[in-house]
């Protein structure tokens, strides 16, 4: 790997999963426009997140990274963003209380548009058309015309990210995220369904803790520690020309930051050590994630640690394992050992979604809630066995009442999937399944019954 780095040095490396833009001049115009726009986040914010993740790496905090598989240009509304935030906040309270440590909240939002695909083409009847690669690239419609990449979409993605982030900042600082209020939503979940009843005891404990705080004189409504939260943004840094256009030199430190989001991650399909994605992300100062699937060897993971975090900065690198429920325990243990023995201060997070996808009898891409829980259990067991910290979870969810994953307290079945299947890419947990997942994760971490 070349020693010197610049925002465009990735261009000299082999690259995967990029669209075939039909018109280079049009692409250049769009990128120049984005380059001239303001950054979406500030370097100092990325550094605060990195410091928080450093606490996660040390076992003193937990990471909750969650949001859509792919944000949509069509499902873009205040309601949609608010409901997603609501669920993330509800999950975070349950996890914070159960683990007794701060929870760093990172959304897969305000920029999570570009999708890597297993196949470049999709068969529709007798015709092969290019795959859908996320609304930042093409349209989802099942025609060849819809799938033609359009650079204008890069500009639209920037504007949608900007508006989303604006609302996230407003909601999280303006009272929406107040602890009392979020706890009341959790109580509503517990009271309103048989699925929720299981978690009554934990919700009651949180309620008692809040009453205790008020009794000691703490004003839980106006104390800013309890009424505002930080939610950071993240997405897969897949389209490197877009990421390069938003990469700016930080005036306070002189370092380069990718100002499209606070945290960026490298996907399972683009994590080659000598590839363009590792080259680009090793040079920006943001905290970086990297997916680690079942084929990753301990040597490969160590080389990734060295490439991305040679200075061994705690919180700089988050390794997100996505092995599949049946593989995680045995697959992860050698990796945990190798990284621990090499002294790399990484965050280990569990993505229990991407290794557990299957096609339902009715032809829908889906995931079973129990396999998702089972991968988290295997992840926690592997960490207990190696004496390392199961630092976080990384999940695909929405606040809406969709029917995309089977199982959960409402016992969604194959036959229910057609009722409200709205994702533009992978199946997401719905609001109730997400909150249930937080309660189940909290239970297994508290009671050690993984
Ligand atoms: O979100 C992840 C990937 O883009 C997605 O899982 C790939 O799905 P595919 O196998 O249908 O291409
Ligand atoms: C593409 C994704 O995951 P992976 O790279 O792990 O397949 C994703 O997180 O949506
Ligand atoms: Mn996905």
Automatic annotation (TrEMBL):
InterPro entries, sorted: Aldolase_TIM, DAHP_synth_2
EC number(s) given by UniProt: 2.5.1.54
Cofactor dependence: Mn(2+); Co(2+); Cd(2+)
Sequence positions that bind Mn(2+): 69, 354, 396, 426
Positions annotated to bind phosphoenolpyruvate: 108, 268-269, 291, 322
Keyword Phosphoprotein: no
Reactions mediated catalytically: D-erythrose 4-phosphate + phosphoenolpyruvate + H2O = 7-phospho-2-dehydro-3-deoxy-D-arabino-heptonate + phosphate
Pfam families assigned: DAHP_synth_2 (PF01474)
Keyword Manganese: yes
GO BP term, pick one: aromatic amino acid family biosynthetic process
Keywords assigned by UniProt, alphabetized: Amino-acid biosynthesis, Aromatic amino acid biosynthesis, Cadmium, Cobalt, Manganese, Transferase
UniProt superkingdom: Bacteria
GO terms for MF: 3-deoxy-7-phosphoheptulonate synthase activity
Pathway the protein takes part in: Metabolic intermediate biosynthesis; chorismate biosynthesis; chorismate from D-erythrose 4-phosphate and phosphoenolpyruvate: step 1/7
Record's cofactor remark: Binds 1 divalent cation per subunit. The enzyme is active with manganese, cobalt or cadmium ions.
NCBIfam families reported in the protein's UniProt record: DAHP_synth_II (TIGR01358)
Homology family: Belongs to the class-II DAHP synthase family.
Protein name (database record): Phospho-2-dehydro-3-deoxyheptonate aldolase
Organism of provenance: Ilumatobacter fluminis
Upper taxonomic lineage: Bacteria, Bacillati, Actinomycetota, Acidimicrobiia, Acidimicrobiales
